Structure formats: C-alpha cells, structure tokens
Amino acid sequence: MTASIKSPLIEFQDTGVYSVRYIASNGSRSDTLTKEVTMLPKIYKNFLGNDTGWCESVGASIPLKAPAGMFCYQWNTGETGDEITTDTAGIYIAKITTPNFCVLYDTINIVIDSIPDKPVITISQDTLKTNAIGNIRYQWYKDEFMTGSNQPYLVYSDSGIYKVEIITSGGCLGISDTVQIRGTRARTLQPNAFVKIFPNPIDNYFYIEVLAKENLKAEIVDITGKKVFDTELSNGLNKIEAGNIENGIYFLKIRFEDESTGIYKLIKTN
Q1: pLDDT digits (tens, 9 = 90+) for 132-176
Q2: What is the pLDDT of residues 202-249, one digit of tens each?
Q3: What does the DSSP assignment read for the chain?
C-alpha cells in the first residue's frame, strides 16, 4: 500500500504489526523514516455485552470478558484481570486502559429471576386473559399444541383445553392451570383435580386413579387423533394395559358426566 500525498490516511484490514516507511524528498535529496505500527483489535463500547441473567433454579454462572492485551484492568469487584466469573446478580463495571493510555468503561447488569407465581386465566366472553404482566414472554397452548399467540390474552374460536406459559427474561417458567372451552361453556381443570395418572412416561401398563364420584369414560388417541384404546373407569384405582401401544406421544381423553372432557398428555416408552 502506497500513498503520495502529504498527510495520507491508511486503513489496515487486520490487526498485527506493520512496517510503515516515510520518504521525504527535496530536489535531489531524500530521507527515509521507518517505524513499526501495531494495530490492536477495535474496542467496542459495549465490550461486556448486553444485560443478561438466568432463573434462580438453574444455579448458573457467567464469565465477563474485557478485551485482551490492554495495559491494565480494574473491576468494581476489585479484580484486575481481563476476565471474571460471577454467579451473583448485580451491576458490574469494567475499566480498561489501552496500550496508548486511552481509558474506557463498560457496565453490565446481571439479573437472577425468581420463579414466577402460577399465572391465572380468566374468561371474558370469547377471550382468555392472564394476570401475569411484566417483562415476560407468553405462549398459549390448545390441546397441548402451541397456538402461536404471544400476547397476555387469547381470543378463542373453538372448544379445547387451553393454558398459558410465561417465561421471564431470565428463563424462569410458569404454567397456568388448564381451562376447558366447550362451545360457550368453560370449565377450569385443576391439575389432578379429577384423576391421577402414574407413571408417566408409561411402560406396558399404567394407573388412572379416579378421584371424582362420577362415571368416566377414557380413550387414548395418537397425535393424528386416531383412537388406539378406550375403556370405562370406575371410582378408585384403574390399571390400564398398554403393552400393545407403540412408543410415542398420546393424549388421554376422559369424558365426565356433564359431557365435558379432560385431556392429559401421555408419553409411551419401553
């Protein structure tokens, strides 16, 4: 790379050590000056990255890295290396001094989220709403399948079993009780309020314990909706043979006396 002007602007495409030669001429006389120039990596203002965090149930830690090759480092924790590791929430500040004695600062906020309270669903005409608000993401499910809705509400148009899942910025998960929509009727199904299913995943057999004093009918369907098994359930403990059911994901549908239906996800393994 050469330039013939008095004050050239030279752009280097990579880091490293370069030899720069300057030749000054005056008539028949000339003089040459050669100097080595070290091009360091570009330092971005946000060198610690964006604010981050995790759920308290994970118990994670995170390394915080400042650019390597600096003249000196100073963290607000008192450490003086180019990298520290922390598992504690808080604001972390790094001060770096470059080899040419420029001083730069960066700050990162680490938040460790608490497990949220279980979201509650309320019904208003054709809309399901959750009381969970804040810096969270939403995911609504119908019959254990994602609906694609990521708002704090869902407008439903058909019957099914609905629930909402919330995820905090740190990754903590909260799942509501299910709400059953049957036509214009809605019935809240508390987990295990009417039946208990164990073990799940199921093997060659499993048990359905009926806790409601009413006549129940049960059927198992695969993910395409094809029925693979049906039976009547009595009050108390019911043993269900499942040896002829192939491995996979199924849905257990239990019909109650009022014609409403509870749906429970099953996983079959050997």
Answers
A1: 887 788 989 988 888 878 888 888 877 888 999 998 877 788 899
A2: 888 898 888 766 778 888 888 777 889 999 888 888 899 988 888 888
A3: ----SSS-----SS-EEEEEEEEEEETTEEEEEEEEEEEPPPPPTTTT-S-EEEETTT---EEEEPPTT-SEEEETTS--SSEEEE-S-EEEEEEEE-TT--EEEEEEEEEEEPPPPPP-EEEETTEEEES--SSEEEEEEETTEE----SSEEE--S-EEEEEEEEETT--EEEPPEEEEETTEEEEE-TTSSEEEESSSB-SEEEEEE-SSS-EEEEEEETTS-EEEEEEE-SEEEEEE-TTSPSEEEEEEEE-TTS-EEEEEEEE--
